[in-house]
Amino acid sequence: MERTLGELAALLGGRLQGPADLVIQGIAAIDRATPRDITFISQKRFARLAAQSQAAAFIVGDDQADLGRPAIIVPNPYLAYAQVAALFAPPRPRWPGVSPLAFVGQGVEMGQEVSIFPLAYIGNGVRLGDRVTVMPGCFLGDRVQIGADTLLYPNVTVLERCQLGQRIIVHSGTVIGADGFGFVPGREGHQKIPQLGTVIIEDDVEIGANCAIDRGALGETRVERGVKIDNLVHLAHNVTVGAYSFLVAQAGVAGSTKLGKGVALGGQAGVVGHIELGDGVQVAAQAGVTHSIPAGQTVISSPARPHKEFAKFNAILPKLPEMYQRLKELERKMAELAADSAEEH
Amino acid sequence: MERTLGELAALLGGRLQGPADLVIQGIAAIDRATPRDITFISQKRFARLAAQSQAAAFIVGDDQADLGRPAIIVPNPYLAYAQVAALFAPPRPRWPGVSPLAFVGQGVEMGQEVSIFPLAYIGNGVRLGDRVTVMPGCFLGDRVQIGADTLLYPNVTVLERCQLGQRIIVHSGTVIGADGFGFVPGREGHQKIPQLGTVIIEDDVEIGANCAIDRGALGETRVERGVKIDNLVHLAHNVTVGAYSFLVAQAGVAGSTKLGKGVALGGQAGVVGHIELGDGVQVAAQAGVTHSIPAGQTVISSPARPHKEFAKFNAILPKLPEMYQRLKELERKMAELAADSAEEH
Amino acid sequence: MERTLGELAALLGGRLQGPADLVIQGIAAIDRATPRDITFISQKRFARLAAQSQAAAFIVGDDQADLGRPAIIVPNPYLAYAQVAALFAPPRPRWPGVSPLAFVGQGVEMGQEVSIFPLAYIGNGVRLGDRVTVMPGCFLGDRVQIGADTLLYPNVTVLERCQLGQRIIVHSGTVIGADGFGFVPGREGHQKIPQLGTVIIEDDVEIGANCAIDRGALGETRVERGVKIDNLVHLAHNVTVGAYSFLVAQAGVAGSTKLGKGVALGGQAGVVGHIELGDGVQVAAQAGVTHSIPAGQTVISSPARPHKEFAKFNAILPKLPEMYQRLKELERKMAELAADSAEEH
Known about the structure:
Chain A is an alpha/beta fold. The first copy, chain A, is built from four helices and 39 strands.
């Protein structure tokens, strides 16, 4: 696969600077690019690496237009990088049709060009849209539904009746639709509450590796359109994740909590159950959210607090031992003064 | 599947209020129930939703007996909900007998009505009790033992010689019996300590998705009877989890630590190795327990502290910047007074 | 399998104390050893258990040489324990050759004595070194390379083009080479950045169960020689983990961060992206590292701080409510004194 610099400039709608017929065979980071690669500068701090870079050409913003190297000038170099990377990406893994080494249950409905790899298991009554890909080791329980162009990487488990939309990517090891953690506690044994609900994943969601998204106790757990979830994330039963939210690795959300649209959870952040995070709430890495948060707020620490409040006292914490000493010293002086004063009277 | 309200009242041993022959076809949350569903009120704050609910009938406590709707009155509505949910739950997934598409090793002993799905792997010398279910993608290592009525969801791994009791549920992706993390550290390479022990899971335990429970270095890692474990939980080698404990998602317990009976670990809580948590200890979400805790205590924060101690200073933390200013102001005034006083003498 | 005490002493290069022909059939913990087992004392606090121990013999240091029981005296009893455990460990699981129930793609190259279990999937163009073992449920993507003597436990996923070195152990459920979490954020949808890189795992690495190690966006994610990784650990795209580092369970490292050699991350510790931890940095359990750390430092807490700084103020925290009261009391006294002083003038 190769493209000329002129073709790439046209694709990106960017301004060409340099020879249109320069041949580009790949894209690479600025410090690793070879003379056959294009690279990109999306942050000023990387611009200093340009002089030593062996890259054939650069994708840059207007501020780097005077680079003196073959370049394509675009408004958003990072977005342009994503577009060029898509061009040079290897094609998706595909198995031609349904492998005879896969298990396919009864009453399965499949759209066109469905790709089922060897060693996948498709339960009874499953419905798969056009161009769905199910890789080895995947399990689709009875009556699972999956929309067009969705890709399940190897060893994904989707349990019965869960529904996935279109253009979804689920990475390996992720489990969708395991029972929620619901018990009636008792001294001598906790009674299981059967988890009768499902999971609904809307279109254009991507879910990382080894996540766990539990089915609703009653009703559903829902991940709305365009949400992106990193690795090892836990979503408990009846959680709702609002559209276009970002959940970074190892974050967890407890039962029945509702995240608004465009919420961001940092890595290893946790959110307790039965609360609401408003649209656009940002939760810092490792924060622990214990109550509902209004839209637009940024919270940090465990238990989570408004970012500004935390920053102020966090800066003082190292002075605490000194403050303690100064307090004792003041008390000593005060006692002296009080004694002097008493003496005088 | 349907039941009359009278039948449900009899099943629950509850007091019937309304028509005994009312037909119920399912159970649903109060805001989602249709006129064919029964619902329940287990917390007062949901009672206000009753008027608008379309539910055919309600499971309530004595305090809601005057609801004016068909109802079953019981001492514990939440427990009754669990019982009715069990009634309406779909049957467990079952494969009739041993699929010819499963791999079964030599010398495997199976009880009656064992269910082995396609694409499962059963090692040599495995012993399976009556009605054990092993779903696709599961791996049972050599000489694994599993008691009657235990259910392994898809893609569960149980490594050699581990023992699971009766009526256990293991959710997808969980790994039981991987090597513990044991090395003799060295400057140029850490020497692996072979992990010769096993894992023993006692009766009535439930383990969530994508957990990891390591085998003992010597001896065993043990999860006692009735313990409930959520998703993505880590138990290191030689840990003991006491009966009826609750471990919420993403909690982790380091090597050789012993949790007493009825211990609760909140989500993302961590416990260091080689300590003991007494019976009934409660560890808050995200807490980090660094030393043994006596029975009955509740601890919070990282490093973990008694809950009361933490609550007191945590409330003061936001005042820390102000305290610092007030301290400086006092020092200034003290200097003035001291100067005045010196002047006077 | 059995050995005489004399043979074991010779193997360990230790000093024999007691009958050389004493037969040893296993190794066990001091409180569990039977009269057929050898045990060891690696920490003084276990020495008090020796008198009641039924062990046939002991591996001890010079400080326990006067135990009065059959013993082997060595400089490092813990290391000697690891060596004896290796002797009594059951042999690795092996399948003789390539199972006809495995799927093997086209153009696969295999060394000698490769062991492929039933229900494994080997993609096109995969290269496997001598004595590689691939257990059931494993997936190796196209053009994956695996060095000699590497062992993949069941249900491991290695995605296309990733490279594993020699003598590596990967435990069940781990995913190597899923896409990194890379998106260009947008108000109405986040654009995926195709992840074109790979993962390189160097020789002698061990990786626990249910970990996730993402492929580089461009270039590679790299785990250097001899690194040991516990369960449920997350490594994001383009991370480098320096040789002989230790990553304890549930730790996570965000994108492009570089850990030096011999770094230790405690359990549930997190490290943000695009920073560097110098050689030998130690990060306490649950710490959250937000900026680069120079070589040799120990950090703790979230956000992470030097250990000494933290220990000082952490000890004062419980006094904070009392400090607040004392501060108010001082202010009251100061106001009185000031009033007195004003009165006098």
